[in-house]
Write a structure and sequence with these properties.
This protein has 2 helices and 17 strands. With 230 residues, it is mainly beta. The protein has 3 domains: 31 residues, no CATH class; 49 residues, YefM-like fold (3-Layer(aba) Sandwich), CATH 3.40.1620; 134 residues, Jelly Rolls (Sandwich), CATH 2.60.120.40.
């Protein structure tokens, strides 16, 4: 008879852990108070998060792969606070990546139609952007991104941005003659988390592209792919 009234009382007032446990905020279901300790959230890798099924909205996990806090929403996993609007800009972690290749030794094999330019080296990356293959960049959070690339090639040809296996026709860039760079700069929007992005020799192209070694001098020339979340 004594236990049940106490449980009802706790349920009505909420539960408090830490300091001053007798003083509980009336609006809280659970209150934590401490001047020297924090809350340690569950920690998982990107692969472990992707393997989860039937995840309810509102789940919060710390992703150890990219050191970011992930929140499950109705549209999928998002990175916070970057993907939340209205937060203090000084608290936001910028999301960007600079991936590059040196020729030589990278891209020794021509990029055939339907193939992707490989950017196997990372200059700088932050906030939930990574690659699973030298030619495929993973954008962890859905959103709007600025995509810029430059690649020196020998043959006349084109390159196109590919998002989740689909060539974005509004991003085709090319050149007709000479040995110069193909460059492109675009704004794209992803609607699902963990979208995959590539820079590809279009599937309907008629020629393989040779990435120019040592263009214009004795030093290896670089190809760059820069992605910034807006």
């Amino acid at each position: 008879m004594v236990i049940f009234p106490c449980m009802n009382c706790i349920h009505a007032q909420g539960v408090k852990i830490g300091n001053n446990t007798t003083v509980v905020n009336t609006n809280s279901l659970l209150e934590l108070e401490s001047t020297g300790k924090g809350v340690l959230l569950p920690r998982s890798t990107t692969g472990q998060i992707n393997a989860m099924t039937s995840v309810p909205k509102g789940m919060l996990i710390f992703n150890t792969t990219d050191s970011a806090l992930y929140l499950k929403r109705d549209t999928g996993w998002v990175v916070i606070p970057v993907s939340q609007r209205g937060v203090d800009p000084t608290l936001q972690t910028p999301v960007y990546g600079d991936f590059y290749a040196l020729m030589p030794p990278d891209n020794l094999v021509p990029v055939f139609p339907g193939g992707s330019v490989k950017f196997p080296q990372t200059s700088s990356v932050s906030g939930g952007m990574l690659y699973i293959w030298p030619g495929t960049i993973v954008l962890a959070a859905a959103g709007t991104y600025q995509v810029m690339f430059q690649v020196s090639v020998n043959e006349p040809g084109q390159l196109v941005v590919v998002l989740n296996g689909v060539e974005l026709q509004n991003t085709v860039a090319g050149r007709a003659t000479g040995t110069t760079q193909i460059t492109g700069m675009y704004i794209i929007t992803t609607t699902v988390p963990f979208s995959q992005l590539e820079i590809r020799n279009p599937a309907q192209a008629s020629v393989a592209l040779t990435i120019t070694p040592n263009a214009g001098g004795v030093h290896p020339v670089s190809a760059h792919l820069v992605i910034i979340k807006l």
